[in-house]
């Protein structure tokens, strides 16, 4: 019996990590071709919100595998793939991070109507990372432990 039959098929997703204290790290996450939670491929947010203390990153320079502590990852950035338009409303928000930076984007998650506020999304206890859709088409996965404060950005036009 070979180990090949025990391997879960995965593909690489190019990402940029911001890691404390290392800084910017370019590499790729390993994503399952089929998510265990829904139809379709596994998403980066699923990997980061697993109950594992480390995540595997295939570095580009130097070309090596590294195991990053999830608690040290501040955020993960990647280009959004073409997503079909949905009726899910987008909620604009601004987040201040511990390093002083501000991130402004939109939350686009299917939430129960009675629990659809920004506070409800931030207080979900089953997830350490939240997903923010940036205006320029990027996705930011932000570690909630590095957020100082967040607020609804009412000044922006409705993008839903």
- The backbone outline, from C-alpha atoms, is globular
**Helix/strand order:** EEHEEEEEHEEE
Helix content: under 10%
The proportion of strand residues reads: 35-45%
Q: How can the largest sheet be summarized?
A: 7 strands, antiparallel
Q: Report the top-level CATH class of the largest domain.
A: Mainly Beta
| Secondary structural class | mainly beta
Number of domains: 2
CATH architecture level-2 label of the largest domain: Roll
Question: How many helices does DSSP assign?
Answer: 2
- N/C terminus separation: 52 Å
What name does the CATH topology of the largest domain carry? SH3 type barrels
Task: Give the C-alpha Rg.
Answer: 17 Å
Mean pLDDT: 91
Q: Extract low-pLDDT stretches.
A: none
Number of strands: 10
Strand order of the largest sheet: 4-3-2-1-5-9-8
Structure description:
The chain has 160 residues and is mostly beta strands. Helices cover 6% and strands 42% of the residues. The protein is built from two helices and ten strands. It has helices at 44-48, 118-122, and strands spanning 10-19, 23-32, 54-59, 65-69, 73-79, 91-97, 102-107, 129-133, 138-143, 147-152. It has a seven-stranded antiparallel sheet. Strands 7-6-10 form a three-stranded antiparallel sheet, with no helix packed on it. The longest helix has 5 residues, at 44-48. It is globular. The model has no long low-confidence stretch (mean pLDDT 91).
Search tags:
10 strands; 42% strand; 3-stranded antiparallel sheet; SH3 type barrels; 6% helix; 160 residues; 7-stranded antiparallel sheet; mainly beta; 2 domains
């Amino acid at each position: 019996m070979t180990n090949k039959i025990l391997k879960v098929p995965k593909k690489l997703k190019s990402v940029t990590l911001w890691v404390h204290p290392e800084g910017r790290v370019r590499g790729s996450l390993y994503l399952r071709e089929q998510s265990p939670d829904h139809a379709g491929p596994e998403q980066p947010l699923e990997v980061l919100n697993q109950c594992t203390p480390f995540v595997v990153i295939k570095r580009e320079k130097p070309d090596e595998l590294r195991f990053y502590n999830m608690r040290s990852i501040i955020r993960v950035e990647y280009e959004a793939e073409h997503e079909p338009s949905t009726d899910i409303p987008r909620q604009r928000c601004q987040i201040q991070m511990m390093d002083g930076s501000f991130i402004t984007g939109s939350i686009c998650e299917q939430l129960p109507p009675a629990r659809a506020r920004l506070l409800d999304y931030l207080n979900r206890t089953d997830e350490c990372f939240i997903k923010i859709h940036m205006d320029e088409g990027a996705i930011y996965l932000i570690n909630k432990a590095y957020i100082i404060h967040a607020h609804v950005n009412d000044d922006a036009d409705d993008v839903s």
